[in-house]
Write a structure and sequence with these properties.
The structure is a single chain. The strands form two sheets. A six-stranded mixed β-sheet has the order 2-1-3-10-4-11, sandwiched between helices. A five-stranded mixed β-sheet has the order 7-6-8-5-9. Helices cover 44% and strands 19% of the residues. By secondary structure, the protein is of the alpha/beta class.
Amino acid sequence: MLKLAVPFIVALSAFASGPVAAQAAFPAKPVRLVVSAAPGGAGDTLARLLANEIETALGAPVYVENKPGAGSTLGYRYLANAEPDGYTMGLIAVSNIAIAGSSQQFSDLPDLREDLVAVGGVAITPHILVVKSDSGIDTFEDLAKTLREKGDALSFGSQGQNSSAHLEGELLNAGLGAKAVHVPYNGSAPALVGLLGGQTQYMFDSVAPVISQVQSGGLKVLASAGTKRLERFPDVPTLAELGYPDIQSDNPLGVFMPKGAPAEAVAKLSEALRVAMQSAAAQDAINKVGLISHYLPAEALQQTVIDEYALWAPVVADVEGTEKK
């Protein structure tokens, strides 16, 4: 009996451990990267670049899934509600979500501070303050003087109501004691047309949409809303340098996963992203689409999320006349 029992026990043990042994370590299948942008834009270009570089570092396929719409909240909701199995991550514009999440319009939006897991930061998109070159406004001090003297006779454009550019304009109003009128447009392109056509007098925007007009002499850069001067415009001061420290946001972009994703998956994807961001090709490609390569480990990205909510919540509350979250 004993001779029969030993092989029987071994066989039974092998059978019992078979499914466990068959479970492959992460990753065992392709990983998807969700992006709240339509194919062809800067966000999509960045996502595909990251997917390629992360795939190389991870040793497993990574593909992009586009989920544009609803001011980037459609893709964000999709990511937050995805199965937390470790095979879905997403590229998120942190400031956009912090602003939307602070608005009564999106009161049911998942909270980026609590409902997702940070993987790592990849880029920043600080806004610059621009005017028409023939406006007679040559410096920020000129604009500030005009705003104080003419009050609501001036207007500024933005990419839409409660966009970061809109709120930066409201912060500038508050800092100067001015009452310039906000004119919301449906995106950067029509807002730029409005500025060049004289319907508005100034606007905040990221570098990519306005750089060609700056280079051709149509627009002049007065200041940066970022935390430090931009390498592309080293002589342009930040608003903080000019005495307006409340207007500081780098508009960070980061990679996140649904809450509850396995720790192994989060750790491996965080490391793959870190390696990917060290690639010279990745950094060059990020800069070419008008962004600034800026890697942050998961912990630093999580703190950035907290800081962005703290920055924008009171501004949104003031604009909407509500209590801040």
